[in-house]
């Protein structure tokens, strides 16, 4: 093999140069003493060349090169230590040879500065063809392709693979330029016998395609890697090592030299990715530009892991009964913050009713005269009281022996001595043969307020199906996959799901035979997923206060009392402002008298536990607080106090460099506790600086405003406006989920001031626009329901036209889709026109790498377009960012000292 920088004799090369037509010389860099295409042979040595003066040769103008590297993981650089693969080597060689080079593509990968690429790991030729269309707009005049490894590994129609390649090639010329030079490499060896058996035939087909197109006059050249690259050049049997990429770059450069020799490299056509100086354009998935390093490194505060503590309250009730048949249940039938005590009774007519002891608060219970009828004669073993529809009150579910679940819905019309009525709805979830009654649990795993279906495996693993949409009964089920791994507790009987700490998410609790309880708390996760394996959960073990192992609840009663242990909001005291009530520990202590009567003492331990309710990521908000056009970072404590991190004005950062300026602690501190979910950062008055708006959840979300009077020299000064817009209201309520809020502020009208959006649970939006002078206009419908969960809707200016667009974030993957705001127009019942794709549905815009709840869309670089800011984890609260720019294009050399790269050239 030959190294491109190793030559045996300068004299031999000088002789070559003397014979060349000077119009073919391409020197423009001081290192270019000779053209690399004309290498001397080993026997060209003619002695010592010291003192030799080479002639100054005339140079010709070189075309600028706009290079698209197109393919899958190999082109992306997988296997290389720097992630650049062959791309930086090839770019450096082109630069060393005198070309101006700009790599193009809608993806970014590797450590090199100009790291644009059009390659996605795992793509087959058809997918690469589709992806190439995203980069037609860049009008590359040189395309380098390695494609097809995934096709042969998957045995995807190998006979038709060369034709699929040809179709892609023809489309490149048709949509970019017939002068675009294309370099096609053969497929690398693979350490998979079945795929390797196909590779030779496919490569022969590639050779024939290239040869035929070349004969037709197409500017196409083959980089034949057969016999040049072997399995020893690969890192994992598929992707090259750094050494292998040097060899691959050498083969590609050799093919480019052939195009160069035949004078096929032409100036690129003008790119058409921007029609207005790069200010407005549509966003495409994957075309963002990464900010380079972590743009958030763990700011904020949390309340740690769960530590249980309790206060024994004694026996609050003593009840005598003729039966002991596991008849006691706790349920929120009157109000959402207290559990009432229900007793299962089969009356003389053979119908089941429930005797009700209403929880009056403070540990006081009152037996009411009228029994509760749920219109279902379910046996106690199958009875579950749980919120099925997310209204905050418990409904009734009956789990049959086969695991089928039937539902009756609490109508919420109870009060005083009258229990609420329940309406029987029928089958809630059909039986699954894997999960009979003993293996079924109902629990709110994803924290949206609605019970989900949980199926237990023999080893304790828990598989979950999400209860979808907003109706009383599920409109659809979404498989979440295995969401909890069994802890080897020995049996399934003790498995419970209860919201122990009051954060709105059901925790895993295993109750032992003597009443001891082990706990793992359930928190929101940023882990990316998909339906079938998504909405991941961040589980953490909890312990008793001061302990680092063992149960949260000691138990220690006589054996055999597991079924007498309950968790309920007897007192229901929240850990802190903004949380739901904690669940107390209840032991229905039983004795049987000599008269055959059964006595139950309701012994209660009030929950005084703390922790696992406030992940750091819950405090993140972003808005331009100083008026410089770039969004700042504001971390909001759960009670409304705010810390300020000014935007550092850095587009790209490296290593440990901070993206933000020095933090200003408590730059806003309200005079009372305000739930951070009700606080909004938005430009209320149109002065370019974000103000703070509070919507009152107890008064139809009417607004109060702290007007931001920031000045660069004077800092922040807040002017309180108690009721600046009395006409604004929204009767909708906040949901349990973190993003399930009824009001958002966005500049839909494009006036420069925020508009007020009231979002119904089904996603329908109405409200008011605000004009440039501050006048409000009622809008009966901004946006019709698209059957998107309200919690997954965002608003931001995606295309830079000055109007905020509607963004739907897919909860599993974090992919984001845009309804483009085309302005005021009466269309389809709405007063604004939201453009969708011709085939229907919003436009794909952002490719997610984290769960939807962890995706934000601030304008970080001040270009008027919503960037993608992704939180990596709810506890560490680190983040990465990708800029939404019209060209999606990085450029520039990594060093001002352009050196010749160490390519390894194939034999000539």
UniProtKB/TrEMBL annotation:
Segments for region (Disordered): 266-293
Leader sequence range is 1-28
Q: Does the keyword Signal apply?
A: yes
Q: Does the keyword Signal apply?
A: yes
Q: Which GO terms describe its molecular function?
A: phosphatidylcholine lysophospholipase activity
This chain belongs to the protein called SGNH hydrolase-type esterase domain-containing protein
Can you give the residue ranges of the SGNH hydrolase-type esterase domain? Answer: 69-246
Keywords of this entry: Signal
Q: Which Pfam families does the protein's record reference?
A: FG-GAP_3, Lipase_GDSL_2
């Amino acid at each position: 093999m030959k190294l491109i920088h190793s030559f045996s004799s300068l004299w031999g090369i000088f002789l070559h140069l003397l014979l060349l037509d000077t119009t073919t010389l391409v020197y423009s860099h001081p290192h270019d003493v000779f053209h690399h295409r004309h290498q001397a042979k080993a026997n060209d040595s003619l002695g010592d060349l010291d003192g030799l003066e080479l002639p100054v040769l005339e140079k010709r103008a070189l075309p600028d090169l706009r290079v698209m590297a197109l393919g899958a993981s190999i082109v992306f650089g997988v296997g290389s230590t720097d992630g650049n693969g062959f791309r930086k080597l090839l770019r450096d060689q082109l630069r060393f040879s005198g070309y101006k080079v700009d790599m193009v593509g809608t993806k970014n990968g590797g450590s090199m500065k100009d790291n644009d690429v059009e390659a996605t790991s795992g793509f087959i030729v058809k997918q690469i063809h589709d992806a190439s269309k995203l980069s037609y707009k860049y009008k590359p005049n040189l395309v380098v392709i390695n494609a097809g490894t995934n096709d042969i590994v998957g045995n995807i129609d190998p006979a038709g693979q060369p034709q699929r390649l040809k179709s892609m090639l023809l489309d490149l010329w048709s949509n970019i330029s017939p002068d675009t030079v294309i370099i096609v490499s053969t497929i690398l060896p693979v350490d998979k016998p079945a795929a390797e058996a196909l590779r030779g035939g496919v490569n022969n087909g590639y050779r024939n395609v290239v040869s035929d197109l070349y004969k037709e006059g197409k500017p196409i050249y083959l980089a034949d890697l057969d016999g040049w690259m072997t399995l020893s050049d690969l890192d994992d049997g598929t992707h090259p090592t750094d050494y292998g990429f040097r060899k691959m770059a050498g083969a590609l450069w050799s093919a480019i030299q052939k195009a160069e020799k035949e004078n096929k490299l032409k100036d690129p056509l003008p790119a058409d990715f921007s029609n207005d100086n790069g200010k407005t354009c549509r966003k495409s998935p994957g075309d963002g530009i990464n900010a380079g390093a972590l743009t958030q490194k763990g700011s904020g505060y949390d309340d740690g892991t769960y530590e249980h503590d309790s206060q024994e309250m004694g026996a609050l009730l003593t009840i005598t009964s003729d039966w002991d048949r596991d008849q006691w249940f706790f349920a929120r039938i009157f109000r959402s913050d207290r559990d009432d005590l229900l007793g299962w009774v089969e009356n003389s007519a053979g119908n089941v009713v429930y005797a009700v002891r209403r929880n009056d608060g403070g540990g006081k219970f009152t037996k009411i005269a009228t029994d509760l009828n749920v219109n279902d004669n379910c046996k106690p073993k199958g009875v579950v009281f749980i919120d099925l529809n997310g209204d905050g009150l418990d409904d009734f579910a009956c789990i049959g022996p086969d695991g089928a679940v039937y539902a009756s819905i609490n109508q919420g019309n109870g009060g005083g001595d009258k229990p609420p009525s329940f309406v029987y709805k029928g089958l809630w979830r059909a039986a699954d043969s894997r999960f009979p009654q003993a293996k079924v649990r109902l629990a709110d795993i994803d924290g949206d307020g609605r019970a989900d279906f949980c199926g237990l495996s023999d080893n304790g693993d828990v598989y979950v199906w999400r209860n979808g949409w907003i109706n009383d009964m599920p409109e659809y089920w979404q498989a979440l996959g295995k969401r909890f791994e069994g802890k080897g507790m020995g049996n399934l009987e003790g498995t419970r799901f209860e919201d122990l700490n009051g954060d709105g998410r059901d925790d895993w609790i295993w109750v032992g035979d003597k009443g001891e309880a082990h706990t793992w708390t359930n928190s929101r996760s940023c882990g990316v997923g998909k339906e079938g394996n998504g909405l991941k959960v961040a589980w953490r073990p909890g312990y008793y206060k001061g302990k680092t192992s063992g149960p949260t609840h000691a138990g220690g009663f006589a054996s055999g009392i597991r079924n007498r242990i309950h968790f309920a909001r007897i007192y229901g005291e929240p850990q802190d402002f903004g949380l739901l009530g904690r669940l107390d520990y209840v032991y229905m202590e039983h004795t049987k008298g000599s008269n055959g009567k059964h006595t139950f003492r309701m012994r209660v331990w009030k929950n005084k536990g703390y922790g696992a309710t406030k992940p750091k990521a819950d405090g993140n908000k972003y808005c331009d607080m100083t008026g410089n056009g770039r969004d700042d970072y504001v971390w909001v404590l759960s009670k409304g106090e705010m810390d300020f991190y000014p935007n550092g004005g850095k587009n790209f950062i490296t290593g440990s460099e901070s993206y933000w300026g020095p933090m200003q602690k408590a730059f806003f501190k309200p005079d009372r506790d305000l739930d951070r979910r009700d606080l909004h950062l938005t430009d209320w008055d149109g002065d370019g600086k974000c103000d703070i708006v509070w919507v009152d959840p107890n008064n139809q979300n009417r607004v109060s405003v702290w007007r931001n009077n920031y000045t660069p020299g004077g800092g922040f000064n807040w002017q309180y406006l108690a009721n600046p817009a009395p006409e604004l209201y929204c009767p909708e309520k906040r949901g349990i989920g973190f993003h399930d809020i009824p009001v958002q502020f966005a500049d839909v009208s494009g006036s420069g001031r925020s508009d007020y959006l009231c979002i119904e649970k089904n996603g329908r939006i109405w409200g008011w626009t605000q004009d440039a002078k501050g006048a409000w206009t009622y809008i009966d419908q901004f946006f019709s329901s698209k059957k998107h969960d309200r919690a997954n809707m965002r608003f931001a200016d995606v295309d830079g036209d000055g109007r905020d667009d509607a963004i739907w974030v897919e909860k599993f993957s974090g992919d984001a889709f845009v309804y483009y705001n085309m302005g005021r127009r009466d269309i389809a019942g709405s007063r604004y026109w939201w453009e969708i794709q011709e085939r229907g549905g919003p436009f794909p815009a952002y490719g997610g790498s984290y769960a939807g709840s962890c995706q934000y869309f601030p304008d970080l670089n001040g270009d008027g377009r919503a960037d993608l800011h992704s939180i990596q984890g709810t506890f560490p609260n680190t983040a990465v960012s990708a800029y939404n720019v019209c060209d999606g294009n990085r450029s520039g050399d990594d060093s001002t000292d352009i050196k010749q790269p160490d390519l390894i050239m194939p034999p000539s």
